[in-house]
C-alpha cells in the first residue's frame, strides 16, 4: 500500500504578505500528515487517527463534505476540473502535526490528499501547479482568502533550508539555515479557526489601502515611500499597509543576514516583524507576545509569532545545544504567567517537502 507524506511549515518571516503576492520565507518542518492509501471504486473513503469520524465522498468531488471532509471533497473537485479520472481510494490518515497551532495542518492535509489522488489516477501535476490547486481547494472548502505560501512550503521544502518564495511570480530559491541551530515551535494552546478569526477582515482592511500604490504590489514598494503613501489614509488601512510593505523588506533583509551569518540582525528583524504583527496588523494575542518575550529572555537567537495569528504558535531560532532546555524554561514561565495554560514545545528541523514514501 503506497504512502504519502506532506509536512507542515514554520514561516520564518513574511507574514500576511502572500495574499498580496508578496515575499515569504517558510521552512517545511519534520512534522507531517501521512496518508496510506490504495485505489478502488469511485469513492474516497478515509479514516483518521486524529480527527473524529470517517469521510466518504465522491471521487470527483461532486458531493460537499462535512467537517474535515470539506477539504477532501474540495481537493477532489479541483483535481476533477483539471482532468483527473474519478478513481476512488481507501486510506488512513495519521499526523504528528498539531491542528490550529499555526503550522498549516490544513495545507498539509490538502497536499497529501492531492498528491495521493493524482498519483493513484496516474495524473502528472507540476509541484507549483499542485500548490495552486490546493490553495483553490482551501478557498472552496472554507472560504478563506489565503495565499499560496502554506501549500508551496509543504511541497518545495528542503532539509536544512528555508524557501524564499515570491508569491506573485512564484520564483523561489533555497536559503540555508544555520547548521548549529534548530527551530522551536511553541504552541500557545490558544486555538483559532481562520474562517472565524478575523483573517478575512484584515484582508479587506488591507485592500482598502492598496489603491494608493497605483497598481503596484506592496513587495515592490520601498519603505522610504511610506510617509507620502500613508498621508491620506485612515488609521487602520494605513497600519495594515505599513505592515505588509515593511514585512516584504524584512524578508529580503533576513535572507541577506542569514547569508552573512549575522544572527544578531536576524534576531532584530524577527523582533521587528513580531511588533509589526502585534501593533500594525493586530493579529497577535497576549499569550503569543509573552512567549516571544520569554524566549528572548531565555537566550533565543530570534523569536516571533508564526502563522495567521489570533492564537497558534511562535517560531524560535535557537542553538541546537540549548534548544530543549530553552523550550522547557519558556514553558514553565508561561505556565506561571498564564495559570491554566500550557505551552507545547516542538523542537524541529527544516525538512524535505511532500513525497511518496514507499
What does this structure look like?
The protein is of the alpha+beta class and 358 residues long. The chain has 2 domains: 170 residues, 2-Layer Sandwich (Ribosomal Protein S5, domain 2), CATH 3.30.230; 171 residues, GHMP kinase, C-terminal domain (Alpha-Beta Plaits, 2-Layer Sandwich), CATH 3.30.70. Helix content is 38%, strand content 23%. It has 10 helices and 12 strands. Strands 1, 2, 3, 4, 5, 6, 7 and 12 form an 8-stranded mixed β-sheet that branches. Strands 9-10-8-11 form a 4-stranded antiparallel β-sheet. A hairpin with a 5-residue loop joins strand 6 and strand 7. Helix 1 packs across helix 3 and helix 9 crosses helix 10. The longest helix has 26 residues. The radius of gyration is 20 Å and the shape is globular. The model has no long low-confidence stretch (mean pLDDT 93).
Write a concise synopsis of the structure shown.
Helices cover 38% and strands 23% of the residues. With 358 residues, the chain is an alpha+beta fold.
Topology:
Layout: E1 3-13, E2 23-39, E3 43-48, E4 54-58, H1 69-81, E5 89-95, H2 105-120, H3 127-142, H4 149-156, E6 161-166, E7 172-176, E8 181-187, H5 199-207, H6 226-229, H7 235-260, H8 263-279, H9 286-297, E9 302-306, E10 313-319, H10 323-337, E11 344-348, E12 355-356
Parallel strand pairs: 3-5
Antiparallel strand pairs: 1-2, 1-12, 2-5, 2-6, 3-4, 6-7, 8-10, 8-11, 9-10
Helix pairs in contact: 1-2, 1-3, 2-3, 2-4, 3-4, 5-7, 7-8, 9-10
Amino acid at each position: 500500500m503506497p504512502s504519502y507524506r506532506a509536512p507542515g511549515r514554520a514561516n520564518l518571516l513574511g507574514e500576511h504578505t502572500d495574499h498580496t503576492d508578496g515575499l515569504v520565507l517558510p521552512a517545511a518542518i519534520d512534522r507531517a500528515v501521512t496518508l496510506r492509501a490504495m485505489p478502488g471504486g469511485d469513492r474516497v473513503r478515509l479514516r483518521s487517527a486524529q480527527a473524529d469520524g470517517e469521510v466518504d465522498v465522491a471521487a470527483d468531488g461532486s458531493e460537499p463534505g462535512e467537517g474535515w471532509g470539506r477539504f477532501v471533497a474540495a481537493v477532489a473537485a479541483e483535481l476533477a476540473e483539471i482532468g483527473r479520472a474519478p478513481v476512488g481510494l481507501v486510506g488512513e490518515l495519521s499526523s504528528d502535526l498539531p491542528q490550529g497551532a499555526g503550522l498549516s495542518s490544513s495545507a498539509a492535509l490538502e497536499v497529501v490528499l492531492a498528491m495521493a489522488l493524482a498519483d493513484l489516477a496516474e495524473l502528472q501535476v507540476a509541484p507549483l501547479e499542485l500548490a495552486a490547486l490546493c490553495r483553490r481547494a482551501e478557498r472552496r472548502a472554507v472560504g478563506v482568502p489565503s495565499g499560496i505560501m502554506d501549500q508551496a512550503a509543504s511541497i518545495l521544502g528542503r532539509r536544512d533550508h528555508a524557501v524564499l518564495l515570491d508569491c506573485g511570480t512564484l520564483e523561489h530559491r533555497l536559503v540555508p539555515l544555520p547548521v548549529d541551530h534548530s527551530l522551536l515551535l511553541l504552541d500557545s494552546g490558544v486555538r483559532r479557526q481562520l474562517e472565524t478569526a478575523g483573517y478575512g477582515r484584515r484582508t479587506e482592511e488591507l485592500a482598502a489601502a492598496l489603491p494608493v500604490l497605483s497598481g503596484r504590489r506592496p513587495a515592490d514598494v520601498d519603505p522610504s515611500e511610506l510617509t507620502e503613501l500613508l498621508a491620506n489614509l485612515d488609521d487602520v488601512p494605513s497600519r495594515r499597509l505599513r505592515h505588509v510593505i515593511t514585512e516584504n523588506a524584512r524578508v529580503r533583509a533576513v535572507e541577506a543576514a542569514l547569508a552573512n551569518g549575522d544572527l544578531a540582525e536576524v534576531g532584530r528583524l524577527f523582533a521587528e516583524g513580531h511588533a509589526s504583527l502585534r501593533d500594525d496588523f493586530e493579529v497577535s494575542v497576549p499569550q503569543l507576545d509573552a512567549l516571544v518575550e520569554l524566549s528572548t529572555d531565555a537566550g533565543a537567537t530570534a523569536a516571533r509569532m508564526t502563522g495567521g495569528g489570533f492564537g497558534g504558535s511562535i517560531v524560535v531560532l535557537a542553538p541546537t545545544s540549548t534548544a530543549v532546555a530553552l523550550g522547557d524554561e519558556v514553558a514553565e514561565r508561561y505556565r506561571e504567567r498564564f495559570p491554566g495554560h500550557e505551552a507545547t514545545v516542538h523542537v524541529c528541523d527544516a525538512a524535505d517537502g511532500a513525497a511518496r514514501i514507499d
